[in-house]
Specification:
This protein is α+β, with helices and mostly antiparallel strands and about 160 residues long. It has three helices and eight strands, in the order ααββαββββββ. The chain has two domains: about 30 residues; about 100 residues, no CATH class.
Length: about 160
C-alpha cells in the first residue's frame, strides 16, 4: 500500500512539474497566441486592394491591374473577386482566402513585384500587421497568369 501511495505522489509531482515547466497542450498554445486585429469586412463590391502600372509603349495607354474586391458572401465565406487586366486582356475569378485565428476573414493586400515588368503578389494580413503571400500574378507574352504560391490552413478549436 505504501508503494502505491508513493507512486501516486511521485506521479502527481511529475505531472505538476511538467505543467509548471512551460509544457503546453495544443489548446493552451492557441490561447497564448497574440490577440489579432479582427478586420471588419466592408460592403459588397468594394475595392479592398489594388495595384496598377502603365503598360510601356501602349498606344491606348492601358494598364496592368490587379484588383481585389468584396463579394456578397465575403464576410461569411472569405470569397473575394480578383480582377486581372493587361490592356484588352481582362479576367476575373472568385478566390477564397483563408480564415485565421478567431475565424476572422483576412484582409487581402496586393503588392507589385520589382523583379518583373508586370507582376504582382496577392497576400493578406492575418490581423497582426504581417504579409502572407498567397498568389503570384505575372504577364508573359501579353498573357496573364495567376498561380497559388502558398497554402494556409484554418486554425480550428
Amino acid at each position: 500500500m505504501k508503494k502505491a501511495a508513493l507512486f501516486l505522489l511521485f506521479l502527481s509531482l511529475t505531472v505538476f512539474t511538467a505543467c509548471e515547466s512551460g509544457t503546453e497542450t495544443p489548446k493552451d498554445a492557441k490561447n497564448n497566441l497574440p490577440k489579432l486585429q479582427v478586420w471588419t469586412v466592408p460592403a459588397q463590391k468594394e475595392k479592398i486592394s489594388d495595384y496598377s502600372k502603365a503598360i510601356k509603349d501602349d498606344l491606348n495607354k492601358n494598364n496592368f491591374e490587379v484588383i481585389v474586391s468584396t463579394t456578397d458572401s465575403t464576410a461569411a465565406t472569405g470569397k473575394f473577386l480578383v480582377e486581372l487586366n493587361y490592356g484588352g486582356n481582362k479576367n476575373s475569378t472568385v478566390k477564397t482566402f483563408p480564415k485565421w485565428y478567431e475565424n476572422n476573414v483576412v484582409k487581402p493586400i496586393v503588392k507589385g513585384m520589382d523583379t518583373l515588368d508586370y507582376g504582382a503578389v496577392i497576400g493578406f494580413d492575418p490581423g497582426d500587421g504581417s504579409f502572407k503571400e498567397l498568389y503570384e500574378i505575372t504577364v508573359k507574352n501579353k498573357e496573364i497568369k495567376m498561380q497559388q504560391t502558398k497554402m494556409y490552413g484554418t486554425l480550428v478549436d
